[in-house]
Design brief:
Chains: A alpha+beta, B mainly alpha, C mainly alpha
Number of domains of chain C: 2
Pfam families (chain A): DUF3502 (PF12010), SBP_bac_1 (PF01547)
Order of helices and strands of chain C: HHEHEHHHHHHHHHHHH
Organism (chain A): Paenibacillus montanisoli
Protein name (chain A): ABC transporter substrate-binding protein
Keywords (chain A): Signal
Shape of chain A: globular
CATH architecture of the largest domain in chain A: 3-Layer(aba) Sandwich
Distance between the termini of chain A: 39 Å
Number of helices of chain C: 15
Strand order of the largest sheet of chain C: 1-2
Structural class of chain A: alpha+beta
Largest sheet of chain A: 5 strands, mixed
Number of helices of chain A: 19
Largest sheet of chain C: 2 strands, antiparallel
CATH architecture of the largest domain in chain C: Orthogonal Bundle
Strand content of chain A: 5-15%
Largest interface: B-C, 114 and 112 residues
Strand content of chain C: under 5%
CATH topology of the largest domain in chain A: D-Maltodextrin-Binding Protein, domain 2
Oligomer: heterotrimer
Shape of chain C: globular
CATH superfamily of the largest domain in chain C: MetI-like
CATH class of the largest domain in chain A: Alpha Beta
Membrane topology (chain B): Multi-pass membrane protein
CATH topology of the largest domain in chain C: MetI-like fold
Structural class of chain C: mainly alpha
Number of strands of chain A: 18
Helix content of chain C: over 70%
Number of strands of chain C: 2
Helix content of chain A: 25-40%
Chain lengths: ~525, ~290, ~325
């Protein structure tokens, strides 16, 4: 921060010129910048209109290997140079493989390596990063250099707020998801399965359908994991999450308990779903390798050995609601045969969900202002977003009726740049859709967001400060990682293992977390009059 | 006397079984990599597939560039690393082997202490990245494996026990410099131990995945083992994130098939399996000449 | 190995006496230069990181940096011992290593003895090659090989053994009970071949005269083995065992991390100090916990090595490490 202080004045004036550029007054921008040019001209380059020293913004995010990464990076830099010369910035894309993302970012932070923007999330060490001082507070930067971020995400910063300060910028996207089942249409047709019972939104009503498949199709797994009712479906449908496994039990109808913080593993609903999953597992409805690394359920759909994926996130479509069976476009195209989705739950608006995918700025950034300016561009400039998400026009994609398609003769593998990480940065609603997707995808998102926002969690806006119990949280997450996969997939007997887990959680200090959460929640309620 | 020329048939049987146990896992993986998709899903992995298919290898051949590159990185690092390592290790060991070297005791302890105490992963990482700035470079894959205290002591023991001091003496009386003595007398006489240590080092470099995991994020610098590790792990992570991020995973790629993963494992094992029997002679010989004592 | 030190020592003495002081200086100058690359490497790889042990007594804050972060005394260790995890992890590390030492030594010696009885050169070479091969492949590949057998859905054991014989398939990567055995088998599979070659090398080095003399006395194969070969092997067995005991606090990271696929369900029986440090540092980002656990391992390991060395010195002084 100190290093760039001298340029702060210049920066704010540049921001002005920046907005003018974007407004289409490209002719006037040089003029503007000149007029506002401060004394700091020693570093100005030849044309005299750049008040900022060149700066390379390093972006760290998880992604697989892209052969043409350099090509895309160059294209982004050309674009930035011609469109926003005043910013005088280049980007360096530094993707890290998923398998190493947590490891490498931890090491980069602890070694103080220089980088600027980093993708982060509350399930990817966000809290540890904040507590350890790895991320910068963004409040001032946002108000100065993030007008386009504020325009769409201004109301949704709570998820990233820690001790009153904002440490991450949420990606502008869907505010929640529908969860439920995805099933193979051909089998539904073959056995004329009646899906109307699922309007209840209860997984147990799926049982007769799974049984039909089990009885008639010995080579087909009725329900394939790793997605299960005890995952997102339970968390979103039955609890208001605060931190880790701690939250409110929304199924508890006692009005005195509305704001009672509990260990969500202890609720009757958890046990109910765990037992149901266990029964299904014992009945042979669930694949045994559900928790094995590298299992791809959609491959099983492709091979025709799977009937239903249960508990996974579903597509957001026009008319998505609980029990509404619709064709699921995304999986239908990737699997190559029709897949139907039936939502059984729709997320409420929850603070924690607003931290599920964010961009933060590293404390090692040498120019956080510039990092924020670039981040802001991702919330306003569809061309920049397109370059980042789809690559170079003509080389990595072509537009067909306004949708993204692969160039002729190219496959996802051979095209050199192909990924689906729109959810990692910027304003998703500015993106193109791919051929095969609903062209109205983002319109549907907007509609869906209204639906989600109209059903807020009772503690929306409450942010838990994890600092007092950070050690306990680590210990608790270890216990969770031990038991979760086995219970979620039905491989462990919940009547034996859940009590064991609860005991271990107590040993790890979960009661202290519950008490701390209750204390903070009560204080928040008092302050907010809830 | 006659019986001693014959091997007891039970021993032969035992070793046939034992060799089978050593080799069967490789066979299984090879067969999985050659199994057709349908047979795989239906019958699982088996030692003799019901249906052969070269699809995985065709796919690898088609998209060979990343694997070839990973091969290249592994070979480069292994060759350079081994040559430099042998030189550095033997040079230090030679100095330590000289009884007239006045700081012999102190230097021995300097080497020894590194075998007793370590600073841990994080400080080690900090030295490489903050002090040497070596992350994302091939040097970061080479330097960590160059010198091990144990190897230094094995070489020193060999030098002190197997090279007659009179030879060194007479060479130096003849006016040979220290360097010449080392290069043209000591090293040529030490081929067995150089081969043994060399083999240790080759194996360590070839099999290393951890330094890549820690230092390399540029996919062009992945070595073969890390490439393999990554393939297996990425598949797992991509599954895990979908539910956590609540992402819209619109058009996921259908991930590599089991056969492909196994074919890649085969390709990583192959060079070791091919080269090793030829080096084995030196290896066993090297061990007989004092490798046991540190 | 049978060469004795005194010769070298005395000749060294002669050499120093006869050397001209100036030449001597030049000579050492050259030796220093030869040693220099090694000295520098050890400095970088080993000594500089040692200064990092103070991190275990700090609460590392990235924005304050390593030097600016707060000192917290033994707080990190307090947290390390807060849950009972650490005791289980230490127990796992030590117990696995002990079992590995016993089983590997016994099997290696047995194999070496039997291998020595194989008279056919070509066959013997084939055996040696096949049993050494596992030693020369990486743990990443071993993980693939194990996965080939244990893949719960398609793996050889479930699909070709358990299911056809009417048994229920096992979710291997979820069932901790089996893993102590699996890890022991995998470890033996990978290291017994190498161990037996070391012993075989010793056996080959035994003077043939002993056996000829024994045969003249009418001693059979069994007698020769127990009265000649085994006694020759015992010192090496002791040394190798003691060396392994010195490293009993260091687990084979690759084995416990790769082969188990770092599966959370198995942690109770598969977590060892090395994986614990790794997971704390890299997965949960807890630098403080990682550095305190790492220091603990280093210190106890150091004490063990030094005491084992004392022991070795007692038994046979020339075999001591230092």
């Amino acid at each position: 921060m100190k290093r760039v202080k001298k340029g702060t004045l210049a920066l704010s004036s540049l921001l002005l010129s920046l907005s003018l550029v974007a407004a289409g007054c490209s002719g006037g921008n040089g003029n503007e910048a000149k007029n506002n040019q401060p004394a700091n001209d020693a570093q100005a380059s030849t044309n005299g209109e750049k008040a900022l020293e060149p700066y390379e913004v390093v972006m760290v995010y998880p992604d697989g290997k892209q052969n043409d990464l350099g090509v895309v990076q160059d294209a982004m830099n050309d674009y930035l140079k011609t469109t926003y010369p005043a910013l005088n910035m280049t980007v360096k894309l530094n993707p890290i493989d998923w398998s190493a993302y947590s490891d490498k970012t931890n090491l980069m932070m602890s070694s103080g390596q220089k980088f600027d923007l980093i993708w982060t999330a509350n399930w990817m060490n966000f809290d540890a990063q904040v507590n350890k001082g790895g991320l910068l507070p963004l409040d001032d930067l946002l108000s100065q250099y993030g007008p386009d971020i504020e325009a769409v995400e201004g109301k949704f910063h709570d998820g990233a707020r820690r001790s009153g300060k904002i440490y991450g910028v949420h990606v502008h996207q869907e505010l929640g998801n529908p969860q439920g089942i995805a099933i193979s249409k051909s089998l539904v047709d073959k056995y004329k399965l009646d899906l109307s019972g699922l309007k209840s939104g209860e997984f147990k009503d799926l049982e007769p359908i799974l049984k039909t498949i089990k009885d008639n199709e010995p080579s087909i797994t009725p329900a394939v994991g790793p997605a299960f009712p005890l995952g997102a479906y339970y968390g979103s449908g039955s609890t208001a999450n605060i931190v880790g496994p701690v939250g409110l039990d929304l199924r508890d109808t006692d009005p005195n308990n509305t704001y009672k913080v509990v260990n969500t593993y202890e609720t009757p609903r958890y046990m109910e779903l765990a037992k149901l999953t266990r029964e299904w597992f014992k009945a042979g409805y669930i694949n045994k390798d559900a928790t094995t690394p590298g299992v791809d359920i959609w491959k099983k759909f492709q091979a025709g050995t799977a009937f239903a994926a249960i508990g996974s996130d579903l597509d957001i479509l026009a008319g998505t609601e609980i029990g509404a069976a619709q064709l699921m476009p995304s999986k239908t195209s990737s699997v190559g045969s029709d897949v139907i989705q039936v939502p059984l739950n729709i997320d409420r608006l929850q603070t924690t969900k607003l931290a599920a995918t964010m961009q933060g700025i590293s404390q090692t950034s040498e120019d956080p202002e510039r990092a924020m300016m670039l981040l802001n561009l991702f919330y306003r400039d569809a061309k920049l977003l397109t370059l980042f998400n789809f690559g170079v026009d003509g080389t990595h994609y072509v537009l067909k009726d306004g949708q993204i398609a692969l160039p002729d003769g190219k496959t996802q593998e051979s095209v050199g740049f192909y990924h689906d990480i729109m959810w990692q940065i910027g304003n998703q609603m500015l993106n193109y859709t791919r051929v095969g997707e609903d062209p109205n995808k983002y319109k549907n998102y907007e509609e869906f967001n209204k639906k989600v926002a109209s059903n807020p969690s009772p503690i929306l806006g409450f942010v838990f400060d994890s600092e007092p119990v950070k050690n306990e949280l680590i210990a608790v997450s270890k216990v969770q990682s031990t038991f979760d996969p086995g219970l979620q997939s039905g491989q462990l007997d919940p009547e034996v293992e859940v009590p064991k887990m609860i005991e271990k959680l107590k040993g790890a200090g979960i009661d202290k977390i519950v008490a701390e959460a209750q204390k903070q929640l009560d204080a928040w309620r008092a302050a907010n009059g809830k | 006397m006659k019986t001693s020329n014959r091997t007891n048939p039970f021993i032969i049987l035992f070793f046939i079984l034992f060799s089978a146990a050593s080799l069967l896992p490789f066979w299984l993986i090879l067969m999985v990599s050659l199994t057709g998709q349908n047979a795989l899903v239906k019958f699982g992995y088996s030692f003799w597939p019901k249906e052969f298919d070269l699809a995985a290898y065709r796919f690898l051949w088609h998209d060979a560039e990343p694997i070839l590159r990973a091969y290249g990185v592994s070979i480069f690092v292994t060759v350079i690393g081994t040559v430099v390592s042998l030189f550095v290790t033997s040079a230090l060991a030679y100095t330590l082997s000289r009884n007239d070297f006045p700081f012999r005791g102190a230097l021995s302890f300097y080497v020894l202490f590194t075998m007793l105490f370590g600073g841990g992963l994080l400080p080690w990482y900090l030295v490489y990245t903050k002090f040497l700035h070596l992350n994302d470079s091939l040097l970061a894959l080479i330097i960590p494996g160059l010198l091990g205290g144990f190897n230094v002591f094995i070489m020193r023991t060999y030098f002190t026990t197997s090279i007659p001091p009179s030879l060194v003496d007479s060479a130096q009386i003849d006016g040979a410099s220290e360097y010449r003595t080392y290069f043209s007398i000591v090293l040529p006489l030490s081929l067995p131990v150089l081969a043994t240590i060399g083999l240790f080092v080759i194996v360590a470099y070839w099999n290393d995945w951890f330094t890549s995991l820690v230092f390399i994020s540029n996919d062009k610098l992945y070595n073969l083992q890390y490439f393999l590790y990554n393939t297996l792990m990425n598949a797992q992570y991509l599954q895990a994130i979908a539910s956590k991020a609540h992402i819209d995973s619109a058009s996921d790629r259908i991930l590599p098939m089991e056969q492909l993963q196994m074919a890649m494992a085969m390709i990583a094992v192959l060079p070791v399996a091919m080269v090793f029997p030829f080096l084995q002679k030196y290896f066993v010989k090297g061990l007989t000449v004092g490798a046991v004592k540190g | 190995m049978q060469m004795d030190q005194p010769i070298t020592a005395s000749s060294g003495k002669v050499r120093t006496k006869s050397a001209h002081p100036f030449r001597k200086l030049m000579k050492y100058h050259a030796l220093w230069i030869l040693a220099l690359p090694g000295i520098l490497l050890l400095l970088v790889n080993n000594y500089l990181p040692m200064f990092g042990i103070f991190l275990a007594f700090k609460s590392l804050n990235f924005s304050k940096g390593i030097w600016g972060s707060e000192w917290v005394g033994f707080d990190n260790f307090k947290f390390l011992f807060m849950t009972n995890d650490i005791w289980r992890i230490i127990a796992n590390t030590v117990l696995y290593n002990l079992v590995f030492i016993v089983i590997n030594t016994a099997l290696s010696v047995l194999l070496a003895l039997l291998l020595n009885e194989v008279k056919n050169k070509l066959f013997s070479k084939f055996i040696q090659s096949s049993m050494l091969l596992p030693h020369f492949i990486s743990m990443v590949v071993v993980a693939y090989l194990v996965f080939g057998f244990l893949n719960p859905d398609l793996g050889f054991i479930n699909k070709s053994i358990l299911e056809p014989s009417g048994h229920e398939a096992v979710s291997w990567y979820m069932s901790p009970t089996y893993w102590p055995y699996i890890l022991i088998i995998v470890n033996s599979w990978k290291s017994v071949g190498f161990g037996s070659i070391i012993y075989l090398a010793t056996i080959i080095g035994i003077d043939k005269e002993y056996y000829e003399a024994a045969m003249i006395d009418g001693a059979g194969k069994w007698k020769q083995m127990t009265k000649i070969t085994v006694p020759f092997l015992i010192p090496i067995m002791i040394i190798l065992t003691l060396l392994s005991i010195g490293r009993i606090f260091n687990a084979d990271f690759g084995l416990f991390y790769q082969v188990t696929m770092n599966s959370g369900m198995l942690k109770d029986v598969t977590e060892v100090i090395d994986t614990y440090v790794y997971n704390a540092l890299l997965v949960s980002g807890d630098t403080d916990l990682a550095s305190s656990a790492g220091l603990l391992q280093s210190v106890i390991g150091f004490i063990l090595v030094v005491s084992v060395n004392l022991l070795v010195k007692r038994i046979s002084s020339d075999k001591a490490l230092f």
